[in-house]
Write a structure and sequence with these properties.
The chain folds into two domains: 1-29; 37-177, Rieske Iron-sulfur Protein. The chain has helices at residues 2-29, 177-180; strands at residues 37-41, 51-56, 66-73, 89-93, 104-106, 111-113, 120-121, 127-129, 138-143, 148-157, 163-164. By secondary structure, it is α+β, with helices and mostly antiparallel strands. Strands 1, 9, 10 and 11 form a four-stranded antiparallel sheet that branches. The chain has a four-stranded antiparallel sheet with strand order 5-6-7-8, with no helix packed on it. It is globular and about 70 Å long. The termini are far apart. The structure holds FE2/S2 (inorganic) cluster (FES). Residues 160-170 have a biased composition (Basic and acidic residues). Residues 36-150 form the Rieske domain. Its cofactor is [2Fe-2S] cluster. GO terms for molecular function: 2 iron, 2 sulfur cluster binding; metal ion binding; monooxygenase activity; oxidoreductase activity, acting on paired donors, with incorporation or reduction of molecular oxygen.
């Protein structure tokens, strides 16, 4: 009788605890493979301003999986991080690195502005004011032989624009931040 009651209690507790545990731990192992997406002809991109384009971040969920990315050509007088095949076009995420609100590029100010808590980013996406903890995330880009620009996986950057595996908003990457906020095990940056 006692054993039966314990088993019944265990089953009842599992009914509550297992879904909660899965909800909490599941995202850590969630795999979001970012497909390469054709977005624009290289010739159509400026190197002194940004053009917004819509890309799909998560497939199979309709509009909810789409996001805006800001694109421009690399500009040698502005972009000082090491040049390679993945940054001939600069692609910035619109997700604010404070709490994730969508930022907007204001061309007159040459700044990205977040409407939620006043976060400001400069022309390169570096933090210029407010509470964001790191620069805007970026996307790998590549140029096809036909001169088309493709946008690939997202990565995060620190203040030096060194690349890191994607992190969530609110997770700094300078100093000990990169160790305090490791990336999810299933997500790695492309050139790692
Ligand atoms: S979410 Fe952008 S400043 Fe708070």
């Amino acid at each position: 009788m006692t054993g039966t009651a314990h088993v019944a209690g265990g089953v009842a507790a599992s009914a509550f605890l297992l879904p909660a545990l899965g909800f909490a731990v599941g995202p850590i192992f969630d795999e979001h493979e970012q497909p390469w997406q054709d977005v624009i002809a290289l010739d159509e991109l400026p190197d002194d301003s940004y053009i917004p384009k819509t890309i799909t971040l998560v497939t199979g969920v309709g509009q909810a999986g789409k996001s805006t990315v800001y694109l421009r050509k690399r500009n040698a007088s502005i972009d000082k991080e090491p040049e390679d095949q993945y940054n001939q076009v600069i692609a910035l995420s619109t997700r604010c690195m404070h709490l994730g609100c969508p930022v907007r590029y204001v061309s007159a100010a040459e700044r990205f502005i977040c409407p939620c808590h006043g976060g400001v980013y400069d022309f390169t996406g570096a933090v210029d004011g407010g509470p964001p903890v790191r620069p805007l995330d970026r996307f790998y880009t590549r140029i096809t032989q036909a001169g088309r620009v493709e946008v690939g996986p997202r990565f995060s950057v620190n203040d030096e624009l060194d690349r890191f595996s994607p992190r969530d908003p609110g997770e700094p990457l300078d100093g000990v931040g990169q160790y305090l906020y490791p990336s999810r095990p299933s997500i790695r940056k492309l050139d790692e």
